[in-house]
Design a protein that fits this description.
Blueprint lengths: L1 H10 L6 H11 L1 H7 L4 E6 L5 H9 L2 E8 L2 H14 L4 E2 L2 E2 L17 E5 L9 H15 L4 E7 L4 H8 L5 H16 L9 E8 L4 E8 L3 E5 L2 E5 L4 E8 L3 H10 L2 E8 L5 E8 L2
Parallel strand pairs: 1-2, 1-5, 2-3, 2-4, 5-6
Antiparallel strand pairs: 6-13, 7-8, 8-11, 9-10, 12-13
Helix pairs in contact: 1-8, 2-4
Length: 280
């Protein structure tokens, strides 16, 4: 839960542009997006988090059903209850599953046109081959003729990227160090959090932000009875966040069984939202 709460705080930071930029695109392009969505479709959200973005789509489009998919069942059901109050005519069918692996859609939506929704630049957290595998899996789950709306973070000025992942308030640092908190709690580790420093760097060659935890000293930690030694300056690479050009994302989508039909960006071309349709 701490991780989710910290991430929600990150999305509100002045330096962290993706959330507010994507919301702006969804708000400003709502009419264009609604124009390509079939009537009475089922909206399937992969990795449903806070409902801010999906509410914009539900306001703009005439969806008959909403299928939020996430591994955290309690969180999902709480969000579904909140949505039901505001959208009483919408049928909501939460599915507790790992959205990166195959899962079955509820029987109630099988005959409806399907629209997948994957906002938040989460695709960037996958290695490119994993992103391809996810898009193929989503295509199989949603079926023939399905559409997909997906948020993709774009390459940009490296200073903007650096600041977004090394915020002045240190929230991203706490989010990154929480990995060690979880290892201590769930795997019986004995990491000393004060002995590691958060650092995010942009790897230009691989088009990605890398989150690291750098060891401040020579030290040995134990995890599940095993000893792991760190030299001073040695790092644990905890997460990557790939940034795409419009062309590179289009190529990825085409190679994963989807045909791009539209894309929208903000005026500064910081972020993008893409509409795809399943290729035959």
């Amino acid at each position: 839960v701490t991780g989710s709460e910290l991430f929600e705080q990150i999305t509100r930071l002045p330096e962290y542009y993706p959330t507010r930029t994507e919301l702006g695109i969804l708000r400003n392009q709502a009419a264009d997006i609604a124009a390509i969505i079939p009537d009475n479709a089922a909206l399937v959200e992969f990795g449903a988090g806070a409902t801010t973005k999906v509410r914009l789509l539900l306001d703009a489009c005439e969806f008959a059903a909403y299928v939020p998919v996430d591994i955290s069942g309690d969180f999902l059901n709480a969000q579904a209850r909140g949505l039901k109050k505001d959208f009483p005519h919408l049928q909501i069918y939460p599915v507790t599953a790992d959205f990166t692996t195959p899962f079955a859609l509820p029987d109630q939506v099988k005959a409806m046109p399907k629209v997948g929704f994957f906002p938040g630049s989460t695709l960037g957290n996958f290695e490119p081959h994993e992103a391809c595998r996810f898009l193929r899996s989503a295509r199989e789950i949603l079926g023939q003729g399905a559409q997909m709306l997906i948020g993709v973070d774009l390459e940009k000025n490296e200073r903007v990227l650096y600041d977004a992942y090394n915020d002045a308030a240190g929230v991203t640092a706490r989010f990154n160090l929480n990995v060690l908190v979880r290892i201590n709690r769930e795997l019986g580790g004995n990491f000393d959090l004060s002995a590691f420093t958060h650092r995010a760097i942009y790897n230009r060659e691989r088009h990605r932000i890398e989150m690291h935890l750098i060891s401040n000293k020579s030290q040995t930690v134990r995890i599940q009875g095993r000893s792991i030694s760190f030299r001073i300056g040695e790092s644990i690479h905890t997460e990557s966040s790939y940034k795409y050009s419009l062309d590179r994302f289009t190529a990825l989508a085409k190679g994963s069984g989807w045909t791009p039909t539209a894309s929208w960006t903000d005026p500064d071309e910081m972020f993008s939202v893409h509409a795809l349709v399943a290729s035959d």
